[in-house]
Amino acid sequence: MYIRNRRRGHSSIGRRVNTLPLRRDALDNIIGEGGDRNCIWELRMSLNAFATLCELLQIQGGLDEDGALDGTYIDVTVPKSDKSRYQTRKSRISTNVLGVCNRNMNFVYVLSGWEGSASDSRVLRDAITRRNGLKIPIGCYYLVDAGYTNGRGFLSPYRNVRYHVNEWVQGHRAPQNRLELFNKKHSSARNVIERCFGLLKKRWEILRSPSFYPIRVQSHIIIACCLLQNFIRMNMDVDPEEDATLLQEHIPVGDDTIVDEADTIDAVESSHEWTQWREDLATEMWEIWRGEHGA
Fold this sequence. Notes:
This protein has eight helices and seven strands; from the N terminus they run ββαααβαββαββααα. It has helices spanning about 25-30, 35-45, 45-55, 85, 120-130, 180-205, 215-235, 270-295; strands at about 1-5, 10, 70-75, 95-100, 105-115, 140-145, 155. It has two domains: about 1-10 and about 65-295, no CATH class; about 15-60, no CATH class. It has a five-stranded mixed β-sheet with strand order 2-1-5-4-3, sandwiched between helices. Strands 6-7 form a two-stranded parallel ribbon. Helix 6 packs across helix 8 (about 270-295).
C-alpha cells in the first residue's frame, strides 16, 4: 500500500521487524511511570504496540487490499495568497484528502495535499494516473458515493434514491424496489470509509483544527496519522478508540500483491457495460431479497 503526499514521494511502513527489541528500561524512560495505561493515554496505543513501532522506526519499511474510498476535508493553515484555492464550498480552508480503506478499517491508500476547492473526482483521477498511485486490478472495484462516476473499478449508488445509513434505521420502511435495496446494501458496506475517517479524526486532535506548520508539513502529518492508525489496529487486540462513541462531527457526510500496471485501471469513466453490470447486480439482489422475505 502506498500512502502519498501530493507533492512528494510515498511513505510506507514495513513488515520487517528489528531483531534487537527495545529494552524495557528504555521504554520506561520514554513513557514514564504508569506502564500500559499511561502509554494508551499519551500515545493512543499499548506499551507492546509502541515497542514494536519503535523497532520499525529503526529500519525502513511498508504496509499494504478492495474496500471503499472517499474524500474528506481536513482544515489547514495556508498563506493568504493560497486561501482561495483551499476554500471549500462551506468557506473553510481545508485540504481534500482521498482515503481508501479495506473492510478492517485499515487505510490502503491516502493522497494528501489537494486544495479544498478541488472536487473528489479530480483528486481520484490524479490518484490513479500517478506513477506510484492507486492501483486497481481489472476485475476489482471500490465502493464510492454518488459524487463519483459509476465506471469500471468504482461502483457508485443510484442517484436520487434514498441512500444514507440513517435513512434506513429507526423503523423506516423497507426497500420498495431493486434500486432502494441496492443503495441500502451499498451504503451499509461503504460506511466503513466514513467510520475510518471518523476514527482518524477522533484519535488525533491535530486533525480536528488547523495547525500552523507549512502546508507541506501539515500534509505529512495527515499521512503519519493514517499510518499510525493502521499500526495501532494491527498491533492491538482491541482498539481503545473504536469502542468509544464517534461524535457526528468526526464522521464525514456522506494480501500483499505486486500488480502489473498493464492490468490496472487508468481512467475514471462511465461505460454501458459497467452500467448494465450494476443493473444486473441490483436485479439479482432484489430477486434474492424478495425470495427471502416471501414478497
